Structures are given as C-alpha cells and as structure tokens.
Amino acid sequence: MATIDPFVLRHLADLQPMLYWLDEDPLEPESHSALIENINADLCIVGAGYTGLWTALLAKERDPDREVVILEQRETGAGASGRNGGFCNSSLTHGFSNGYRRFRREMRTIERLGRENLDAIEETIKKYNIECDWERTGELRVAVTKWQLDGMQEEASLRNEYGDNVEVLSKEQIQSRVKSPTYQGALFDHDGTALVDPARLVWGLEKVCISLGVKIFENSKVEWLEEKEDQVVVHTPYGAVTAAKVALATNVFKSLVRSARKYVITVYDFQLVTEPLTKEQRKSIGWKDREGISDAGNQFHYYRLNKEGGILWGGYEAIYNFRGKVRQEYEFDAATYATLASNFLKTFPQLEGIRFTHGWGGAIDTCTRFSPFWGKAHGGKVVYVMGYTGLGVAATRFGAATMLDLLDGKKTERTKLKMVRRKPLPFPPEPFRYLFIWVTQWSIYRADQHEGRRNLWLRILDKTGLGFDS
User: Fold this and answer.
1) Which of 2, 252, 381, 422 could lock onto 363 through a cystine, CB 3.0 to 4.6 A?
2) Are strands 139-143 and 292-295 parallel, antiparallel or unpaired?
3) pTM of structure
4) Which CATH number fits domain 31-134+191-264+367-427: 3.40.50.970, 3.65.10.10, 3.40.462.20, 3.50.50.60?
5) How far apart are CA 60 and CA 45, in angstroms?
6) How many angstroms separate the Cα of 203 from the Cα of each of 59, 80, 129, 234?
C-alpha cells in the first residue's frame, strides 16, 4: 500500500467494509427456518437469489396450485443478487455487441425479448407494490478516449434497426448532462436500463413468493441430488425435498450438476459508495436525470446515484482467484479500493475531498460467452441456468422463465433460441485456467492502453468464439 498516492488514500480513511444496500434497512424481512424434515413438492428450487425467486414467482403465476419450495444455503439474496450495483439492463447477452457477434441471426428476437422482459419486471413491481426505488433512467456509455468513440454511430444505427432506442451524444451533449473532463462523447440508451435497490428487489420478490404460497427454507445447503424413479430427492443436512422437478439457481456456487462446472469461473467485482453530495458538489457534476453510467473501455467502470444522493462506483478490475473459490475474505480488497478511488477522482476531480463510506466485493459467475446458458440433467427433471456475468439483475427473470419452459417441456420462442439450446465453450482445467485468465486480462489491459488494439492473443480468442472484451 506504500506506493499508493496519499492523496487518494485520504478519501478512503472512513471506508467501512460493509454492504451499502444492507445498512440498517427497515424493509429487510424476517429470516426463515432451516429445513429439518422430509417434505414433498412439485417444484424444488435451489437458491434464493433473483433467479430462484423469479422461478418461484413465475411458477406460481402459471399454476397457483403448484407446490413450490426454495432451499437457500445462507439467507435470501446473500449472493450476487443483494450486492450488485442495481443496474437493471434489458440486454440478455451482456450487451448488444457481444450478442450480435455470437447470435446474429436471432439477435432481433433476443433484443425484443429483452425489452419485453424489462417491461415485465416493471409491471411486476407495480402489480405487487414492491418498494425497490425503481427508476427507468436509461444509461450513458461514455467514451473517455477518442478511440472509444469509434464505431458508436454504427452501433447506434444497428441497434435502432433492431428495435432499441439509442443515440450518440457529442462531447458538448454529454457534458451538458454530466460534467467530467474525461468525457469525449457517449452512447445514450434512453429506456433500456432501470436503476433499482438490489436488496429491496430481492426482499420484495421474497415477500411476493411467500404471499403466493411458496415455502422458503434458509441455512439449508443442498448437499446432493438423488434420482428416484420419476422424482428427484434434494438432500440437505437436516432434511430433504422430494420433487417432480428441480430448478438450480446456484449462480457462483458449485453446481450440483458436475458436468456444468467446467463452463463457469468465479471472479470478484468491487464497489465503493460515497457520502451524499452537497448541493454545490451536485451542481458541479450536473447529472440531474440520474442516468446509469458506464465506461466504453474493455475494462470499464459502472456508476450511479443512490437514493441518498451519493455515488456508487464499481467495476474496472475483475479478480480471479486460483481455482475460482468463493470465500468471504475475498470480499474486501484494499488495493482494488484504492484503484477505484483513484479512477473516481480522475473522472470527477471537482469532487476532491469527498469521503467513501462503504466498500465491498462480490462473486460473479462468468462463462466464455458472457451470457447465461441452460442445461438439463437427470432425464430433464433437473434444469439449471448460470453464467450471467454481472448483468443479471434483469436477465435472471428471463433465465427463470426459460428454465420453467424447459422443466415443463414447453416449446416456446425462448427455448428455440440458439443461445438456449447451446452451451459456451468450457474453460481449461487448472493450472491452465489461471494462466489463460491472467494472460487474457493482461491483454485486455494492454488493449485499453493502446487505443483498443487487440493483440494476437485476443484476436485468437475472437476467432475461436471466446472473445473476451470485458
């Protein structure tokens, strides 16, 4: 830490290693008991994050008489669902460009389904009166170097042709919205992103599920699955659920389907939150429309205003630990916080002296195509979805709906998609996996330092369909 600029460290002096969204929120519901008996259900869901809760909610809406049980190893929303930045984006493919490169022939359908999915989330929030600070603000993807502007106009034209509503902003136009000396221009997505309090969304979905008759058991880690004739027995330390169908919504945690594990790795993403801005500070940056913002680089920041008028600032470095283990001690990283703070002050030098109050990290499951994939096991009685790559706040609802289609044997517009029918390329085993990721991340960093030029390694990955770009 001695090499870090003391000027930057002054802004981190009061940082608390805690999750901003969970800081004394009165809307947090009571905890649920663990499963201590053997019970039966029509549908057993493993995981009580966004994917699991959406699966339960949609299952009950489709069939109110269906007996639905959720098993959660910790507490509801304890994983990525309760600790993300609250960007609810319509993209189902981790951005249009990534999806267009991989699923070009069906991208028009995917984009439409993504917009319909985001609208459906908003309708659900209104229908059930979920208090989650929902704001349909849109998003600005800002160019902080000239090379990042290249291709934005072409992307905007293509996306609008495919049904999106985006426009390119000049340097003067973006500066009139948000003032930063680094901004050279931006791509403005008018209505494809909403901002939300992620923890409150989890709790709201949880309450809706309970009201619909879903049973939730916390502190009930699933240890193994046992196929028994036409049912599956889901075993926990103190009990079991025997169900006709099982939906796995385990995200970063080791999949109960061994063959699925090779497709995902776990990386850690970190965020900071500032104290509320004063009127003078807010005036110095503008931002009156409260849009979500992200950088256009390969390594990018995402940031937004919270309900108290502070700034949430995250992203840039995704840290992979050897063997991709998920551990609580990985959720705090002093060096990464210093990097985040330094880049924040370069973006908003007019906010010099502001205090960062909260800092935390969280695990993200990613795959080689950066977007969710699905799979079946135990003769189709078990279905899983994973690989959201940090853009899953909205995509989890689509993932859940598709998982239900597959479990129910329904042929729908969703299940016909190539992105649903095919899996990504697997990662190599360790220690080659660690070396592969390290070389790729180094190459991405170099690309950002050299006007986006991708070296031989990245070009090889592009041609083989791996194409790391974030």
Assistant:
1) 252
2) parallel
3) 0.94
4) 3.50.50.60
5) 13
6) 18, 14, 12, 25
